[in-house]
Design goal:
The structure is a single chain. By secondary structure, this protein is of the alpha/beta class. The chain has a single domain, classed as Metal-dependent hydrolases (TIM Barrel, Alpha-Beta Barrel). 48% of the residues lie in helices and 15% in strands. An 8-stranded parallel β-sheet has the order 1-2-3-4-5-6-7-8. Helix 3 runs parallel beside helix 4 and helix 13 packs antiparallel against helix 14. It is globular.
Length: 329
Amino acid sequence: METRRLPKIELHLHLEGAMPPGLARALAAEKRIDISRAFDASGGYAFADFAGFLRVYEAAASVLRGPDDYARLTAVVAADLAEQGVIYAEMFIAPEFCGGGDPSAWREHLAAIREAAETAQAQGGPILRGIATAVRHAGRAASRVAAQAAAGTAEDFLVGFGLAGDETAGRPADFAWAFDCAREAGLGLTAHAGEWSGPQAIRDTLAALRPARLGHALSALREPALVDTLAADGIVLELCPGSNIALGAVACWADHPIAALRDAGVAVTVSTDDPPFFGTDMSREFTRLHDTFGWDEPDFRAITETAARAAFCDAATRARILKTLEETG
């Protein structure tokens, strides 16, 4: 099945994690920063497990030293998405990496990202929106700084707030203040949960943070009652099969819970997470889902429509996305 031609929507894409290794090396050379240990012999990112992935991720992100670098990255990411047929994407952007939490620096970074995104869209690229993201292993205080930065810039480009990073760091309740702050600012809410932790962590995340969407949530399938709750409450899952398999959270494509969760009535979407790290893109994700579960064009269109309705964008943008899907149907 040729999947590249299908329209796609990506809701779980880390901007720093979408940086191609070549761009990371170029920026490092320009700034004379040594991140050579982040790469393997073939030039790709080198890591053996999730902890190693986080270290390499942060090493690569360290070469992004200002708004111009983020604008450059955004333009590259937009071009890559356009090649995959992505018509809309929400990018996780960490205020911690964009000025270290300084409000003025965050605004400058966000303005540069937005300008690059709008330029790409004007040239025929996808519609891009941002989700400010707290880094869980940076701690509760840092999450509050990230939430305040997000709340101060909530508008039609920055549409959401999320929690990413090491799930074993802290409890979901530690980040409740940050999520309440973002909620009061009108931002859509999402949180990583259940990728490395069990079903109870998903329940705790839902209770403490009250997100509309969850990233990964792989362990939900271990508890049928939780699956029923996700389905009944309309919690949308941002699933990233290629990422989960590359990191070892799931052994192989056939073992991934995406099909079982969908069959159980849970709203699922497909994303790439940090595509250059995992050797994937949206077309490859669709192709592997077709090969593994027999999903065909109607399945992918249904999932893409689910993603459109779960997007944190404004009503006018959602209507535009849905119209594009209808016209390409």
